[in-house]
Design brief:
Strand content of chain A: 15-25%
Helix content of chain B: 10-25%
Distance between the termini of chain A: 30 Å
Number of domains of chain B: 2
Mean pLDDT of chain B: 94
Mean pLDDT of chain A: 92
Strand order of the largest sheet of chain A: 2-1-5-3-4
Largest sheet of chain B: 5 strands, parallel
Low-confidence stretches of chain A: none
Order of helices and strands of chain A: EEHEHHEE
Number of helices of chain A: 3
CATH superfamily of chain A: Beta-grasp domain
Number of strands of chain A: 5
Oligomer: heterodimer
Largest interface: A-B, 19 and 24 residues
CATH superfamily of the largest domain in chain B: FAD/NAD(P)-binding domain
Chain lengths: 106, 339
Amino acid sequence: MTKIIYVEHNGNSHSVDVENGLSVMEGAVQNNIPGIDGDCGGGMSCATCHVYVKEEWFDKLEKKLDGEEDMLDQAYEPKKNSRLSCQLTVSDELEGLIVNMPEKQV
Amino acid sequence: MIKTDALIIGAGPTGLFTAHQLKIIGLNCEIVDNLDRAGGQCIELYPDKPIYDIPAIPECTGEELTKNLLDQLKPFNISFHLGERVDELKKNETNWEVKTNRGKTFQTPNVIIAGGVGSFEPRKFSLKECEKFEDKTIFYSIKNKKIFEGKTVSIFGGGDSALDWAVELAKNSKVNLIHRRDEFRGAQATLDKVHELKKSGKIELFTKYQLKTVKGNGNLESIDIEHENKEIKKLETDYVLGFFGLIMQLGPIANWGLNLNKKTVDVDTEKFETNQKGIYAIGDICNYPGKLKLILSGFHEGALAARACFKLARPNEKYRFEFTTSSKKIKERLGVKGD
């Protein structure tokens, strides 16, 4: 189990223990965290699990696959530190990861 | 008013195969889809991505799967109502009255919702002010390209639609192409063309920029775009086009009194019927214990929902299960010779 902190756009913060091996998106959906939809179920084809990750975490995260940046073009208000949370696999390394959500997903 | 035994909402793989199942058992059906072509997510989201888990097909793309499903429907005469969204569903004695956004009405005892994650809509600019210009000077799709002739058009986006239109409109307009990063995800050939047009001054390219503000009274006058490093540029422009792909929204389905569970509809696993008699939900949009969002599950769900439709469409007949390999009736419907 690894602690992941999901912060909604309005500042509401949810600290959840997520099983290692799940994606950050699955951790949110399984714990009913509002603000992360994951419509396509993790297929990197919808951009509704979009989150912002602070730069200090970037090195610890898995590198973006080809399709992720393409998909982020279609996300709501993508920024430099945007990620699709379905592409982030939870592991001990990510203990205490904070992900911030955009104002909305669609 | 179109009368039919079953109305299918959604022309994705699940909807298409369900049409096949309905026709096989002798029912007629009509299909409505908000997109202007069949295929649903397969064709919109991943036409070129290989799929590896369709039974008996080791590998195929979303596009090939759609083509094969349409081929399988060839023996039947099925009406597609594409580019139309079902907006209203009303009970009328034993039938459902279904209205589309283009004013078409269907009367049917059976409505099969095979709507995926809802209907596809273009993703729009996040700036609130853009709304008042929408469909006047800000567009998310192009219906009449003549209006842009001799004007300045600012195109946002980095995919094929943005690139294709930039090249096309550069023939008769001044084009600004704006994208949030350096890389484009469109076809290389189009991208080469864009760079060529940039060299000859037909297209101005702004990368790492996003829309910041829109200005104008009634008509659009100018826009500000902001670079990643916060630098702001003002562009005089007559029109703005945004091509950010499609998003899926549940849309009107949410208003039909169905048991919703997040963005899915609860169904039983015998008929795939919702809490409303004669309304079924199949494919990605339905939910039941153990539901898998796989295309093959959608096929199974559609086959069972089709049999359930028979009861309501032919209340005085008894449904008899038959195999396509041996049934004379089915062969007749398929237009193939019997033994």
